[in-house]
Amino acid sequence: MRGDLRSRRVAVVPDAVLNPPAGGADHLTPLAEAGWGLVVLPPAGLPAGTEQAMVAAIADQVVTFLDDDYEVALGWPGDERTGRLIETLSAIGRRVERRIDLLD
Amino acid sequence: MRTVCYLAHCLLNANAKVDEGARCAGVSAPVVGLLREHGATIRQMPCPELAFGGTRRFWAVREQYDTPAFRAHCRTLAAPVAEQIRADLAAGARVVIIGIDGSPSMGVELTASAGDWGGRPDKPRDEDYPVTPGPGLFTETLLGLLGDDVAGARVVGIGQDLFDYDEPAELAKLAAAVEHTGAR
User: How many domains does chain B have?
Assistant: First the structure.
């Protein structure tokens, strides 16, 4: 048996954390070293329907983690998809309170 | 040429795994590090089991998930991923889909499967998790949605859900998949 290695800490982050622009700060490494699991929002430029479906799926995952008392945080400042996730969660009466600083 | 890797959700978030299924706290750093070394763009696919069975689900085999409702759930999650993959292929990118061998949903070459699993969850995770050749349900759904377009992508499974997981060997397999273009 390996035991339960899950950190129970989940950070919802913009695509730029996973795919930083050239010369951009590496936020992934410190988050990973701190044990955060990542839920990565879709990149910019997708058709609206595709993006909406992906954000809706992420909202379902976030609610699942919140309901099971996992620590959930939003990478902040986020991007437009972060805003859409907040709106999607708000529409079902849910909210992620914690923010993780992603300032360069 | 740009390489875009579509990762199984849990490779970036082990919190989506079942109890005792995680091999790290959160991010599978060796996998992400390898992809970054190769300059790949990384995309995270959704975990079909997480939103369906929650974080307290037991480990299960493919047959336990193989219901019309779970297949519909997989189609809902896979459809936007397939659209994104098609767009990447149309833009000339190399696409690599990276699943989890041994997973009932994300398996690529090996999936958890047994006709006699069910009822009381008394099967030890590390002794007799049965696998058979073939994809998991989400992978099967995604590849089905891609249709002929899948020929332009490479599909590889990392054996993190296998009892005899050999990380160096699996990373070498992943590196080979990322370095080479072409079909499955």
Answer: 1
Whether residue B128 lies inside any domain: the answer is yes
pLDDT tens-digit profile of B24-62?
Answer: 889 999 999 999 999 999 999 999 999 899 999 988 899
Predicted ipTM?
A: 0.95
Report pTM: 0.93
Nearest to B56 among A43, A60, A68 (CB): A68
Q: Give the span between the Cα atoms of A73 and A38, in whole angstroms.
A: 10
Determine the structural domain holding residue B129 and report its residue range. 3-179
Does a structural domain hold residue B184? Answer: no
Contact A39 B44 (CB under 8 A): yes
Q: State whether B23 and A2 contact (CB < 8 Å).
A: yes
- C-alpha atoms less than 13 angstroms from C-alpha of A40 in its C-beta half-sphere: 27
Does residue B159 lie within any of the structural domains?
yes
The confidence score (pLDDT) of residue B107 equals 95
Interatomic CA distance for residues A39 and B30, integer angstroms: 18
Check B20 against A19: CB less than 8 A apart: no
Chain A nearest CA to B54, separation (Å): 6
User: Which of A55, A59, A75, A78 has the alpha carbon at shortest distance from A67?
Assistant: A59
Every domain of chain A and the residues it spans: 9-100
